[in-house]
Amino acid sequence: MSGILALIFWSSTVAFARSLSDSIGIINAAALIFTLSGLIGCLWLLITGELKSIIKLSRLYLFVCGGLFVTYMLCLYLAIGTAATELQAIEAGIINYLWPGLTLAFCVPLLGYRATWALVPATVIGFAGAALAAAGGAGLSWQGFVINMQAHPVPYALALSAAVSWALYSSLTRRLAAGVSSRTVPVFLLASGLVFMIIRPFFHEEAQWSIPALLELSYMVLVPTLLAYSLWDIAMRRGNMILIAAVSYLTPVLSTAISCVYLGVLPHWSLWAGCVLVTAGAVLSRISVREVPGKNLVTQGSISL
Fold first, then answer.
1. Strand (E) or helix (H) holding 175
2. What are phi and psi of 11, to 5 degrees?
3. How confident is the model at residue 145 (pLDDT cuts 50, 70, 90)?
4. What is the pTM of this model?
5. Partners of 115 in the β-ladder
């Protein structure tokens, strides 16, 4: 359930991030969101006494999974920030939605899961539905995608790196931190915020603050960042990973629906068509990958130093 809640909370990110970035800039927003959410989370860990237990965790887990977490945040927001046009930002976002399928694919070599031939068409169908839903009548086309990619390849490379990073993070968290109760997400969020603070001077963004911008920033800090990523971390350690990864295909559909409501945009037919494809891909993915008991988890004792 925690993974499903995380996906629902994440679905509101695009609508609020787009609105907030119009006011203060995407890099400014990322720096503030991750730094504030990380500070709040670490303060809570300090009050509850859990911060000390994090130091005792495996260095392999902290550096590998922490590095992948920061890499994902950096690549995703830089992909959006370096996009030459809004259309290119949408295309980069679609590439980022490769992560649910990649997560399931990585479960096979990294966690010892068994997959059938159906995983390939399931991934293709799910991603096609995600792309169709995210397009939303924005004028996306394969020819335009190729032209944009040849002219400005950096955002697409960053988006692909983000998808791979998050899929690896999700799989390796399951492998390296299964059974661990320590909550490390606030530390990872703070690290991400510090990285964005370092690169912030290289992006000339003007911030225009207002009450709506402050409210949006507060929501982004608490709900789709601190709460959602913490819930996802719990799900990756203890939940039904195959089911959650399959349901993850619904994220762009929910995201588009929430964006339409919040931003006052009339839903395009592609949203409903994408929903059908995403659902079919999720169902097929769910039945194409199976967990092999006793082969996918590393015991807590083997990762604690």
1. helix 154-176
2. -65, -20
3. low
4. 0.82
5. 289
